[in-house]
C-alpha cells in the first residue's frame, strides 16, 4: 500500500484495543495507518441489523475517534456486520470511489433506456444462476439470457432434450436434478432463455467433437461453434451485456474457445459490458486495451450475485439510512 500511494502507511497490529485507539488519537495531519484485520474481532462475524451493530464494542470504541466513515468495499456489501453497517448509524458516511463505480455500472441494468440487455450466464454454480434468472424474468430486466455450462444443461433437460446418460449422471451427482422443475417453471413463464443448439463434447479416448444438442453422445464440455455464432449476434446488438460464469470447462485449453469468443464479441460490441465472477475475469488476462468507459469488471462475488438476484445489500442500505439521518438533522 505504501508503494502504491507513494507515502508511508503504518500497520498497527491491533483493531480496537488500547494501542490502536491511542495510535489513532496521536495521528498527525497527513498520516495514514492501517489497522489489523477487523474479522479478528468476534463481533464482526455476527450478522445483525444496523441499529444493533451501532451498539457493538467495535463501533462504540472506535467511532468517537473518527470524523467520518467511507465504505469502499463492494465485495462485502452483502454482509450485515459491525464494520459495514454499524458505523454509518453513528457517523457521517459515504461510499468510496470503487463502491460508487460498482453501483453506477450496475444501475445500467435497471435503466429502461438501455436496451436490449443480454445476460450471459454459465459456470457450475447452478443454484446461484437460477436465482439470478428468476429475478431477471420476474422484473423483466433481460431481453436475452444466454446460457452455458451446467445451467445450460439444466434448461436443456427442462425443455425435454435428451443429453445422454453420462451428462444426466453428472447433473444427478451434483444434486441438480431437483432444480429441473424450477427451470421448467421459468421457461413456462416466458423467460427469454436461450440454450445451446450444439455442444463441444469429450468422447472416449479424449476425442473432442461437436454434436447437436438433440443428439449428444459425449460429455458436454463447452458450447459449439454454431451456438457461439448465434450468441455473438445477440451480444453484438446489445446495449448492456452482463457476463457471469464461463461457457465451458475453461481449465482445459480445449474447452476455452466458447467463453473466449463470446468475451471477444462483447469487448468488440458497442454495448456496455459488466463482467463478474473470477473465471470470466481471469479470461481477460492482463489486457491493457480494455476501455474502462465501456467495460466494468466487478469486484463483487457474493455481493454481485445478491444484486443480480434482486436481494438487499445491507452496506448500501446502511449508507442510505446514514444519509437520511444527516438530511433530517439539517
Automatic annotation (TrEMBL):
<keyword id="KW-0418">Kinase</keyword>
<dbReference type="InterPro" id="IPR001576">
    <property type="entry name" value="Phosphoglycerate_kinase"/>
</dbReference>
<dbReference type="Pfam" id="PF00162">
    <property type="entry name" value="PGK"/>
</dbReference>
<keyword id="KW-0963">Cytoplasm</keyword>
<keyword id="KW-0067">ATP-binding</keyword>
<dbReference type="InterPro" id="IPR036043">
    <property type="entry name" value="Phosphoglycerate_kinase_sf"/>
</dbReference>
<dbReference type="GO" id="GO:0006096">
    <property type="term" value="P:glycolytic process"/>
</dbReference>
<keyword id="KW-0808">Transferase</keyword>
<protein>
    <recommendedName>
        <fullName>Phosphoglycerate kinase</fullName>
        <ecNumber>2.7.2.3</ecNumber>
    </recommendedName>
</protein>
<comment type="similarity">
    <text>Belongs to the phosphoglycerate kinase family.</text>
</comment>
<keyword id="KW-0547">Nucleotide-binding</keyword>
<dbReference type="GO" id="GO:0004618">
    <property type="term" value="F:phosphoglycerate kinase activity"/>
</dbReference>
<dbReference type="GO" id="GO:0005524">
    <property type="term" value="F:ATP binding"/>
</dbReference>
<dbReference type="GO" id="GO:0043531">
    <property type="term" value="F:ADP binding"/>
</dbReference>
<dbReference type="GO" id="GO:0005829">
    <property type="term" value="C:cytosol"/>
</dbReference>
<dbReference type="GO" id="GO:0006094">
    <property type="term" value="P:gluconeogenesis"/>
</dbReference>
<feature type="binding site">
    <location>
        <position position="251"/>
    </location>
    <ligand>
        <name>ATP</name>
    </ligand>
</feature>
<keyword id="KW-0324">Glycolysis</keyword>
<dbReference type="InterPro" id="IPR015824">
    <property type="entry name" value="Phosphoglycerate_kinase_N"/>
</dbReference>
<comment type="pathway">
    <text>Carbohydrate degradation; glycolysis; pyruvate from D-glyceraldehyde 3-phosphate: step 2/5.</text>
</comment>
Amino acid at each position: 500500500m505504501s508503494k502504491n500511494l507513494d507515502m508511508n502507511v503504518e500497520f498497527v497490529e491491533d483493531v480496537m484495543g488500547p494501542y490502536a485507539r491511542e495510535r489513532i488519537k496521536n495521528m498527525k495531519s497527513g498520516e495514514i495507518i492501517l489497522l489489523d484485520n477487523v474479522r479478528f474481532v468476534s463481533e464482526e462475524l455476527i450478522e445483525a441489523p444496523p441499529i444493533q451493530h451501532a451498539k457493538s464494542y467495535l463501533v462504540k470504541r472506535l467511532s468517537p475517534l473518527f470524523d467520518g466513515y467511507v465504505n469502499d468495499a463492494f465485495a462485502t456489501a452483502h454482509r450485515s456486520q459491525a464494520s459495514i453497517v454499524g458505523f454509518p448509524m453513528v457517523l457521517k458516511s459515504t461510499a468510496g470511489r470503487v463502491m460508487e463505480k460498482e453501483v453506477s455500472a450496475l444501475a445500467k441494468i435497471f435503466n429502461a433506456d438501455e436496451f436490449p440487455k443480454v445476460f450471459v450466464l454459465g459456470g457450475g454454480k447452478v443454484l446461484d444462476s437460477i436465482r439470478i434468472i428468476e429475478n431477471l424474468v420476474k422484473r423483466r430486466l433481460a431481453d436475452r439470457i444466454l446460457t452455458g455450462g451446467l445451467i445450460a444443461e439444466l434448461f436443456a433437460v427442462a425443455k425435454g432434450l435428451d443429453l445422454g446418460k453420462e451428462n444426466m449422471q453428472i447433473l444427478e451427482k451434483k444434486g441438480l436434478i431437483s432444480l429441473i422443475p424450477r427451470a421448467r417453471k421459468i421457461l413456462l413463464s416466458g423467460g427469454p432463455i436461450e440454450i445451446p443448439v450444439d455442444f463441444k463434447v469429450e468422447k472416449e479416448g479424449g476425442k473432442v467433437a461437436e454434436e447437436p444438442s438433440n443428439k449428444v453422445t459425449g460429455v458436454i464440455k463447452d458450447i459449439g461453434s454454431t451456438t457461439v455464432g448465434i450468441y455473438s449476434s445477440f451480444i453484438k446488438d446489445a446495449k448492456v451485456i452482463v457476463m457471469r460464469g464461463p461457457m465451458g470447462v475453461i481449465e482445459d485449453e480445449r474447452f476455452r474457445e466458447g467463453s473466449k469468443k463470446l468475451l471477444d464479441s462483447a469487448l468488440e460490441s458497442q454495448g456496455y459490458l459488466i463482467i463478474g465472477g473470477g473465471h470470466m475475469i481471469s479470461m481477460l488476462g492482463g489486457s491493457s486495451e480494455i476501455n474502462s468507459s465501456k467495460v466494468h469488471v466487478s469486484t463483487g462475488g457474493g455481493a454481485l450475485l445478491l444484486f443480480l438476484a434482486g436481494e438487499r445489500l445491507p452496506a448500501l442500505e446502511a449508507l442510505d439510512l446514514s444519509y437520511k439521518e444527516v438530511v433530517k438533522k439539517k
